[in-house]
Amino acid sequence: MKRAGTGETAEDVTAAVGGDRAALERVVRAVQPEVFRLAVRFFGDPRDAEDAAQEALIQVVTRLDRFRAESAFSTWVYRVATNKFLSIARTRGERQALSFTDFDTELSRLPQSPLATPHPDVEEQLLIEEVKVGCTLAMLLCLDREHRMTYILGEIMELDHATAAEILGITPAAYRKRLQRARERITHLMRARCGLFDRANACRCRKRVNTAVGRGCVDPHDLVFATSAQQAREFPEVLTEIRRLEHAERAGAIYRSHPEARSHVDLAGFVDGLFPA
Question: Which part of the chain is the RNA polymerase sigma-70 region domain (predicted)?
Answer without folding.
Answer: 28-92
